[in-house]
């Protein structure tokens, strides 16, 4: 199905927790509706960060073009604002070809940046980030959240204590600008035309089965050479404090290689981290407006049929 250039197109966003089968379902939707996929995973944007990212292999993409995937050097700290700006451009290019833009991934912060553009935040102060990272590593994410409660209580109230990357960024903004992030965020720009057309479809698999998949996948990643991958990245000069190596799995391997924990602990803590992350993803998307939920996994043919029928109706304007 190729969309008419005269028809206002929805931009379909397929979201859900990690390990819920989004990639498989995204491929099916792209094949059915002549679509192209835009990655919405904050770790899959990085090159050389492979094993624990669950990037869909090239041979499994079945000819479907993928964008904003595997293109950022791992030393670069890529931001949600950069992703949103790039995504608007890619959507325009996809639609100029008469095809459907499909955003696929579980990073809700990226998608919110597209739908509700951020205020112009200051560039990252790498020295300040390193100091806060040292504090977090020595005293824990809870201590960062405690600092934020004192400096910006409104931001602290809406950020989970384990959401350390966003807590840390809120602290950076407060310390760099002298003003709380919560006081600056109301100065958002209006949503772009493409951001305003995003239609969100979300997967909600049964929690026990999802957690079992997460546990199995974590063990697979360690067996596949995750420790060796991190060793190679560190040897190439990728900072241990980079966003890329702060991702789930990678962070615990860095701790193992530094002697902060043993291998068994790194594996078990990774499982726990990812299970907590999946829970936070579900909570995040349940708080977002106008999300259309489907129970089950995206690689289940019955779920695929239901979602395809729903998206077909959305495209028809029903």
Report on the structure:
The structure is a single chain. Helices cover 52% and strands 9% of the residues. It contains 14 helices and 6 strands. With 318 residues, it is α/β, with parallel strands linked by helices. The chain folds into 2 domains: 11-118 and 188-316, P-loop containing nucleotide triphosphate hydrolases (Rossmann fold), CATH 3.40.50.300; 126-184, Histone, subunit A (Orthogonal Bundle). Residues 1-6 have low confidence and may be disordered. The two termini are 17 Å apart. A 6-stranded parallel beta sheet has the order 3-2-4-1-5-6, with helices on both faces.
Brief synopsis:
This protein has 318 residues and is α/β, with parallel strands linked by helices.
Secondary structure layout plus pairing:
Layout: E1 11-15, H1 22-33, E2 35-39, E3 66-67, H2 80-96, E4 100-104, H3 108-115, H4 126-139, H5 141-151, H6 153-158, H7 164-177, H8 181-184, H9 193-196, E5 198-204, H10 207-223, H11 226-235, H12 250-257, H13 263-287, E6 291-295, H14 301-316
Parallel strand pairs: 1-4, 1-5, 2-3, 2-4, 5-6
Helix pairs in contact: 1-14, 2-3, 4-5, 4-7, 5-7, 10-13, 11-12, 12-13
Which terms summarize this structure?
single chain, 318 residues, alpha/beta, Rossmann fold, Histone, subunit A, 2 domains, 14 helices, disordered N terminus
């Amino acid at each position: 199905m190729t969309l008419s250039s005269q028809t206002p197109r929805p931009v379909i966003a397929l979201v859900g927790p990690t390990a819920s089968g989004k990639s498989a379902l995204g491929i099916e939707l792209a094949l059915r509706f002549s679509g192209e996929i835009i990655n919405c995973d904050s770790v899959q944007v990085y090159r050389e960060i492979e094993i624990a990212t669950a990037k869909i292999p090239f041979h499994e993409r079945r000819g479907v073009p993928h964008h904003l995937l595997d293109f950022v050097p791992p030393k670069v700290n890529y931001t949600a604002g950069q992703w949103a700006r790039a995504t608007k451009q890619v959507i325009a290019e996809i639609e100029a070809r008469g095809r459907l833009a499909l955003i696929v991934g579980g990073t809700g912060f990226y998608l919110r940046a597209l739908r509700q553009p951020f205020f112009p935040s200051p560039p990252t102060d790498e020295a300040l980030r390193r100091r806060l990272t040292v504090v977090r590593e020595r005293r824990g994410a809870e201590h960062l959240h405690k600092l934020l409660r004192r400096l910006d209580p409104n931001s602290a109230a809406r950020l989970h204590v384990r959401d350390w990357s966003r807590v840390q960024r809120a602290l950076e903004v407060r310390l760099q600008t002298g003003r709380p992030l919560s006081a600056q965020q109301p100065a958002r720009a209006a949503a772009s035309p493409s951001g305003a057309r995003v239609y969100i479809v979300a997967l909600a698999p049964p929690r026990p089965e999802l957690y079992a998949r997460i546990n199995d996948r974590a063990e697979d990643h360690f067996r596949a050479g995750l420790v060796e991958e991190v060793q190679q990245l560190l040897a190439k000069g990728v900072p241990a404090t980079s966003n890329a190596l702060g991702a789930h799995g990678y962070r615990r391997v860095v701790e193992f290689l530094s002697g902060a924990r043993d291998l068994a602990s790194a594996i078990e803590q990774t499982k726990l981290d990812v299970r907590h992350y999946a829970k936070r993803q579900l909570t995040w998307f349940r708080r977002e407006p106008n999300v259309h939920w489907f129970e089950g996994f995206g690689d289940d043919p019955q779920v695929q049929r239901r979602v395809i029928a729903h998206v077909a109706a959305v495209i028809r304007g029903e």
